[in-house]
Amino acid sequence: MATYLVLWPTGNLVQQAMDGTREEWDLQEAGRYGLYGAFITAPLLHTWLKVLTRLIPGSAFTQALAKGYVDQLVFAPVNISQFFVGMALLEGRPPEEALHECQQKLLPTWMISLSIWPILQTLNFNLVPEKNRVMAISCGSFLWLVFLSYMHHTRAQDLPQGLVSRQVHYDYKHGSSESSCVRLGPIDFSTSDTQQ
Description:
Blueprint (H helix, E strand, L loop, with lengths): L1 H17 L8 H29 L5 H30 L4 H33 L5 H21 L7 H4 E7 L3 E9 L13
Antiparallel strand pairs: 1-2
Keywords: Membrane, Transmembrane, Transmembrane helix
Pfam family, one: Mpv17_PMP22
Family: Belongs to the peroxisomal membrane protein PXMP2/4 family.
């Protein structure tokens, strides 16, 4: 909890420094990240890692790999959802708005998570003793928090196109082509006019 009390506001401040739209530091925002990281994320992560270790005992590479993927397929969507909803509520926004943000940003955030965290968690479960795993993962968590802070503070319509919409469409006459015809918004998947 003490580690996350330092890492989370620091990660948010790094994101604020990288954000060209900000004119001054928002220390209250950084404080909210510290409280949330220390009192919500750290205990939740500690408990989940204990549960996961009991579900899949052992630290051989195959067991560590299994834990890494179970972590991302089971825990990550819950963790990302509670981050978006929890941070919005801490900012004083209404629950409907918090849920709407979660609907817009959960899937693209989770897709990025799936490309990073299985590798880091496999190494964590394979090489790090159980008592040090939350501490070890906090190093990767710092960079991840900078990304989460960016996702949270960027409106869905202002996110890079590759994060919010992507579809590979296979046309049997002309081969495959990538288009931006599926919008990963709040359960609103519209298709392009080329799709049958």
